[in-house]
Specification:
With 103 residues, the protein is an all-alpha fold. 70% of the residues lie in helices and 0% in strands. It has 4 helices and no strands.
Length: 103
């Protein structure tokens, strides 16, 4: 069943994010906005891993090139925006960049 790893990744993702919402989210709600965004932006600063879609041999050759390029570069842009927001977070510009990252 070739779809099993895909469904397992979805199930494990739900479990992991369920843990985050149970233990991390309540703590973040009571922090100032900039401080509450910091852990979430740190997590998303690792989205450069999406560039693996562009490395030959990492993903199946059957993966459409249009999808691989789109996913890889948009993940890189998201990671860059997360890092920029982290670096400028105490200011209003950091919050604006965080909003851009989310959109």
């Amino acid at each position: 069943m070739p779809q099993l790893p895909f469904f397992m990744s979805i199930a494990l993702s739900f479990i992991a994010w369920g843990i985050v919402t149970r233990y991390v989210w309540p703590e973040l709600r009571f922090r100032p906005h900039a401080e509450g965004l910091r852990p979430l932006l740190i997590l998303h600063s690792f989205r450069f891993i999406g560039l693996a879609f562009l490395v030959p041999g990492v993903v199946s050759p059957d993966l459409p090139a249009a999808f691989a390029h789109s996913a890889g570069y948009w993940h890189l842009i998201a990671a860059i925006l997360a890092v920029l927001a982290l670096l400028s977070l105490p200011s209003t510009a950091g919050v604006v960049i965080a909003w851009m990252f989310n959109l």
